[in-house]
Amino acid sequence: MLSERQRMILNAIIDDYIRSAEPVGSRSISKRGDVTFSPATIRNEMADLEEMGLLEQPHTSAGRIPSIKGYRYYVDHLVTLDGVGDQDARKLRTYFAEKMNHWEGVIGHAATILSQLTNYTSIVLGPEMFSTTLKHFQLIPINDVSAVAIIVANTGHVEHRTITIPDGISMDDMNKVVNLLNEKLTGVPFYKVKSVLHSEIANELSRYVEHCEDILTLLEQTITEEQEPKVFLSGASNMLTQPEFKDVDKAKSILGMLEETQLLMQLFQSNPGGIHVKIGTENALEAINQCSLITATYSYEGQSLGTIGILGPTRMEYGKVISLLNYLSKDIAVMMSRWYK
Amino acid sequence: MLSERQRMILNAIIDDYIRSAEPVGSRSISKRGDVTFSPATIRNEMADLEEMGLLEQPHTSAGRIPSIKGYRYYVDHLVTLDGVGDQDARKLRTYFAEKMNHWEGVIGHAATILSQLTNYTSIVLGPEMFSTTLKHFQLIPINDVSAVAIIVANTGHVEHRTITIPDGISMDDMNKVVNLLNEKLTGVPFYKVKSVLHSEIANELSRYVEHCEDILTLLEQTITEEQEPKVFLSGASNMLTQPEFKDVDKAKSILGMLEETQLLMQLFQSNPGGIHVKIGTENALEAINQCSLITATYSYEGQSLGTIGILGPTRMEYGKVISLLNYLSKDIAVMMSRWYK
DNA sequence: AATTAGCACTCATCGAAATGGAGTGCTAAC
DNA sequence: GTTAGCACTCCATTTCGATGAGTGCTAATT
Prior knowledge:
The structure is a homodimer. Helices cover about 50% and strands about 20% of the residues of chain A. The model of chain A has no long low-confidence stretch (mean pLDDT about 90). Chain A folds into 3 domains: about 5-80, Winged helix-like DNA-binding domain superfamily/Winged helix DNA-binding domain (Arc Repressor Mutant, subunit A, Orthogonal Bundle); about 85-130 and about 230-340, Beta-Lactamase, CATH 3.30.450.40; about 130-225, Enolase-like, domain 1, CATH 3.30.390. By secondary structure, the first copy, chain A, is α+β, with helices and mostly antiparallel strands. In chain A, a hairpin with an 8-residue loop joins strand 1 (about 55) and strand 2 (about 65). The first copy, chain A, has a 5-stranded antiparallel β-sheet, with helices on both faces. A 3-stranded antiparallel β-sheet of chain A has the order 4-5-6, covered by helices on one side. In chain A, strands 1-2 form a two-stranded antiparallel sheet. Chain A is elongated and about 90 Å long.
């Protein structure tokens, strides 16, 4: 569909624009080493590319900038994955060499590194418990009326909540129930916990304990309560270094959006694994219609667990970011498996 | 030192400036209801106030704006604490009426509300475990080589870490040690844990278990490892609504600073309780030399636990914010005690 | 003696007009 | 098919004068 020459020119324009953030003229392309045609020829091609919707012109007498469609073509067909530079690789190693003693540390760190290496904003979703299995469940009484419920997954993931023990229920009864739950639920994946509770446990329980229904519903709530994954954000202020967001209002709408965890999770939904690039208006949220979002999932034992992502201007260093995300998501996977091996 | 009239005028200027963010002229003061003098008189007083260092002039033919010293006088002597408005109080009630099942929820929520009600940035430090006592300690094995250590405090605060079990140490031995620790350490304040470990436990342990030293050092690290309080940040993007930060570079240095948890904790250090106001250059960090930080501590059973704070421009609504922080810090205290009562 | 009206002066801000220059589209030559 | 040349467009920047808010000082007023 595009001639070789057109692809070269498109590539050159996008490369230049990513570097300079300013409309690219025919002359400057011609002066690059890799395109050996005269400005006039390039102008003709540029006019064609514009007609195809791959480029646009801010105003009549300006150079061209890539359109969303242009970036899309670039990402799909032209971009070269530089791989991860030695420097960056080394930084990653040293970072991860630090001893971490909970996964929040690993993931949070990953977010920090990502934003530092890219100068964009990184968003990382912690692992979903959904696909993990229950390892241990426990109640620890704090005083007469409240207790801490602790849930441990086979991945070492720990959740805890404070619950209030209803009147008229003894700690003894509670403990009996907890023991039974551990017996029956250990090894059960979280998404099955609810149904197993009802099918296998409800009956058996009613024999042992009074008030068992109250207790059961309480614990059911406790265990199955929505475990929304934690969101780690880093380098949000990097957005302000981008010339496209020097307008405070634009910056504000993006940074405001970044503060709403709900929206961020929404952004990451429906990512079936692998690396995904959403450019400009391809994103659902209006606030980031001038941004691109690149996401990758990281996994443990084949199960996709969570997502890491980079948000930047549409004029983003796609090649570098894609390589980096690719590298890092695998690194996290290795990290996790080494940890739990 | 200041005449009654000067105080009135200073108060009027600061009030106006806080509202408008623009230099205040003599005429506009004179037109307010509360100061009944002619512009000329007010001009004379303004000149005096400037000489005293309480006001300054951006340029010769502009109105006056308060200096740091001016704000300081205002906060110390003039500001009226409006109390918390009905609307705000109602919002606070509804927010806290939501059921929370871990303290992170309560504190995080507090940060959100604060930033929403004030339109400034809120920074909240979670409770330090320092002053709480150990309630329960437990190891849950995940696989052959690693286990999750869970530490519960009497406040319901839960910490967890993943540890790797050294070669040649059996899970049985580990459990013996853990049992002993629970026996001896329950009820001991965290800051004493380390010394108790050495004085009371080390000896006794050596009788029961081999390799006990290895285990002990591991667990000691685990329990006493630096528990730095969590930092909750909310409404950072509100900074961008302030006209003083419409300059992207200024905004960036502030927002960048806000991303560094270490710095934030530093900011909050050495606050002996009560409400504190740091204005402009009174703050140690250069990044917020154009900001004011108001902090308050919240406590539980008389023990000051953590800190809540509001960061805004020096041109901040001191009265409103101080009232609000005062109110909310007490609210959190009530909340916590009701929870654990 | 304190207060105020009057007035000359300062200086940031705003808009209009002038200038410069980067880049295009088109035509004609190679 | 490619390229040199040229007229044209339009943004960005600068310049300049007008505007007006606000001051400081002096002299009049209470």
